[in-house]
Design a protein that fits this description.
alpha/beta; 24% helix; 259 residues
Length: 259
């Protein structure tokens, strides 16, 4: 099966020592390895242009038509402009261009009834795509919050999550009501988007840690706030997200038209 991963952006920078003044798209290596370990063929999805020089345009619809599922990877902040707010600090402006690119992908994958899996920023982006809002910074906007991002230890910052009642996580992981995950985010879901359901929260402070599309959603929509691709598979103290990934890939396989 072919899994498309949305790109991270390095926007045009005249001071960059390589590809001066050019926009670069990239894929974080751990993400591709995590997906390929389960047999997925991974493709980074480029940003489609309105037209192309010397030939027919390749549209978002064309790109999505060649994929069996979408993974939204982590990265820069979601821009407050994408959910109708102004950034409280300049460093929280986020990446509005990337937001629009990813929202267009989400909408087209849903239109073609193909599954979508969001990771960290991907969970926040999905919530915004469904009309929800975010905490621009947990530490200043969420009272009594634990530290969800510690730059010095990065993905070695861990906390417990607790599943919500009747969650898909509970069904995929019988016999447990939560687990230990990494935490590298300073933004989080605030107002839940329409058509989404909360799957898990941080045990310490109630920050939303996993969401899914509701029963009326025709596509498989799921997202987690942590980075399962960063976690050491040999560390059995950490929550094993493999059942979520396998469910997503099974949905992709069921919709695949590729041999």
């Amino acid at each position: 099966m072919r899994i498309g991963v949305s790109a991270c952006f390095f926007h045009a920078d005249p001071k960059r020592p390589v590809f001066k003044g050019k926009t670069l798209l990239y894929l974080e290596q751990s993400m591709s390895h995590w997906l390929m370990r389960e047999g997925a063929l991974v493709f980074m999805i480029p940003a489609a242009e309105a037209g192309s020089k010397g030939g027919a345009a390749v549209t978002v619809r064309d790109l999505v038509g060649e994929m069996d599922g979408l993974v939204l990877q982590g990265g820069s902040d979601v821009s407050p402009k994408s959910y109708g707010e102004k950034a409280l600090k300049p460093e929280w402006e986020g990446d509005f261009i990337r937001d629009q690119y990813e929202i267009s992908l989400v909408r087209e994958f849903m239109a073609q009834e193909k599954p979508v899996l969001g990771i960290c920023r991907g969970a926040q982006l999905l919530n915004v795509a469904f009309g929800g809002t975010l905490y621009q910074d947990i530490g200043t906007q969420f009272a009594r919050a634990r530290v969800h991002r510690d730059w010095e230890i990065y993905d070695r910052n861990f906390h417990e999550i607790r599943f919500e009642k009747d969650s898909m996580l509970g069904k995929l992981c019988p016999g447990t009501q939560g687990g230990r995950v990494n935490s590298v985010h300073h933004q989080a879901i605030r107002d839940l988007g329409k058509g989404l359901v909360i799957e898990a929260r941080s045990a310490d402070d109630g920050v939303i840690e996993a969401i899914r599309g509701d029963d009326d959603c025709k596509s498989f929509i799921y997202a987690v706030q942590w980075h399962p691709e960063f976690q050491d598979a040999g560390d059995h103290s950490l929550f094993d997200c493999a059942p979520v990934l396998k469910s997503f890939l099974e949905q992709a396989k069921n919709r695949s038209s590729h041999a």
